Amino acid sequence: VEKLSLKNVAISGKDDIGSLANEAQNNTKIKQVHVDGVLAGERGIGGLLAKAEQSSITESSFKGRIINTYETTAAYNIGGMVGHLTG
């Protein structure tokens, strides 16, 4: 995915929420993707992606709020760009 802007995104759900996609894997390349908005959920929340495995994100950004609606002190994979990153 390259050269994409998403404005005023508003997404709410329970698990695995990303404004661009749920998951990127197998050498997915994301470049110059910019998102602004609000995401709300319980776990697995990222500004661009809920999960990324063996993928790259360059020259991209997320500006906005990520709201954890689950009342816990445990870690539930929430991040500004990616909720859960491996590889």
Automatic annotation (TrEMBL):
Pfam families: Peptidase_M26_N (PF05342). Residues 1-37 form the Peptidase M26 N-terminal domain. InterPro entries: Peptidase_M26_N_dom. One of its GO terms (cellular component) is membrane. GO terms for molecular function: metalloendopeptidase activity; zinc ion binding. This is Peptidase M26 N-terminal domain-containing protein. It comes from Streptococcus pneumoniae. The lineage of its organism: Bacteria, Bacillati, Bacillota, Bacilli, Lactobacillales.
